[in-house]
Design brief:
The protein is built from 14 helices and ten strands. With 362 residues, it is of the alpha/beta class. The structure holds nicotinamide-adenine-dinucleotide (NAD).
């Protein structure tokens, strides 16, 4: 169940009460089989609101893990498994993830593997997690600097999405999530594509955000429903991500990490430029590449890579999960609303396109 609205307090506490034995008078947060996972930021910024909704959560049932990518590894998974085990979490237990995409990814992964799987709910608190990471059932952690290399396909049974949390989100994180909104605009075309060319609304404008969240969730959910395990159409959601993930991994390797969405935004630009070579409607693709470059240049700080970085970027691109043994396979946009997956592209063309962008994102 995906709920998107403004009054999360009522919706969340009602859902929790109806899952629990409501006969007992104990506050719902203190029921022994509910566990709350948050990051250091969401512990400070969001947990007291949830705590009020449920009438008090015992300390032992709250775990705060590091923020962001620092949480997406096996060491943190062991911390989460051990916390669940030492508090007698059972198959019937529920894990509630409160945080950004990284938190939802690692929390979902641990829930889907602890005791071979327990139920989990997501409360996404970043824009990126609201429009993308919390929805669709992909859970995962990184393997070294290879992004999301270990994971499962497991749906959260409830997802509560509200623009309420956006007000504390730093502008850079709004921009990071906006890259996935741009991606959905390209996938959908029409009104959605027009909307992503408009200025980003102020975080106080809850109604504008509600509208944006709703159409984004609709697009993502429709594609996921058609192809849950990414055998076909779901690969479209990887638009911008083959090169985006490579840029993100390179930046992690070089010790200067960039937000996921910034990498995706530049990935969308570079991949659309790559798409021109295989497009049957070259003029439309060139026009999309131009518009996209203008949008991304106007919003995002540049990501610099040099010619010397291209071999490392190619190694990350070759390791992309979408490839098969012989081919580099991309999801590419030929025009807004005209996107395709499993497009084979030669390594030479990718190298040539990357070389064209050396210094160009500056
Ligand atoms: N599973 C999927 O389908 C999927 C899809 C897209 C991205 N992802 C993953 O999502 C991750 C990126 O997610 P993200 O962009 O949300 O980053 P993030 O999870 O790293 O969060 C960004 C920062 O914002 C903080 N934060 C969270 N909520 C806040 C709030 N309301 N106010 C202030 N600060 C807050 C976080 O603690 C963190 O420091 C990546 O690991 C990416 O691989 C997964």
């Amino acid at each position: 169940m995906i709920w998107c609205g403004l009054d999360i307090a009522t919706e969340f506490s009602e859902a929790l009460s109806s899952r629990l034995d409501t006969v007992s008078e104990a506050p719902i947060g203190s029921k022994p089989d509910i566990f709350f996972l948050c990051s250091q930021s969401t512990h400070a910024l969001c947990l007291s609101f949830i705590d009020d909704c449920v009438g008090g959560i015992p300390e032992s049932h709250i775990l705060a893990i590091p923020d962001g990518e620092d949480a997406k590894n096996l060491t943190i998974c062991e911390t989460i498994y051990t916390w669940l085990q030492s508090n007698q979490a059972q198959r019937s237990s529920l894990l509630i993830n409160i945080g950004g995409g990284a938190l939802c990814d690692v929390g979902g992964f641990c829930a889907s593997t602890y005791l071979r799987g327990i139920e989990f709910w997501n409360i996404p608190t970043t824009l990126l997690a609201m429009v993308d990471a919390s929805v669709g059932g992909k859970t995962g952690i990184n393997l070294g600097h290879y992004k999301n290399y270990i994971g499962t396909f497991t749906q959260a049974t409830h997802i509560f999405i509200t623009p309420h949390w956006l007000k504390t989100l730093p502008p850079a994180e709004i921009l990071s999530g906006w890259a996935e909104v741009i991606k959905h605009g390209i996938l959908s075309g029409g009104k959605a594509w027009s909307q992503v060319q408009q200025p980003i609304p102020n975080t106080n404008d809850h109604q504008a955000w509600l509208n944006i969240l709703e159409w984004n969730i609709k697009i993502k959910s429709r594609i996921v429903k058609a192809d849950f395990e990414e055998k076909g159409e779901r690969k479209l959601l990887n638009l911008g991500h083959s090169i985006g993930h490579a840029l993100e991994s390179l930046s992690l390797d070089q010790g200067k990490p960039i937000p996921h969405g910034y990498a995706v935004a530049w990935g969308l630009v570079i991949e659309t430029s790559l798409a021109i070579g295989s497009s049957p409607t070259k003029e439309e693709t060139e026009s999309l590449a131009e518009s996209l470059k203008a949008i991304v240049k106007g919003l995002y700080t540049p990501i610099s890579f040099t010619q010397n970085d291209v071999p490392a970027l190619m190694n990350f691109i070759r390791a992309d999960k979408k490839n098969n043994q012989n081919n580099l396979l991309f999801s590419l946009a030929f025009a807004p609303g005209n996107c395709h997956f499993n497009i084979a592209v030669s390594p030479e063309d990718v190298i040539q396109t990357l070389n064209r962008y050396v210094g160009q994102t500056d």
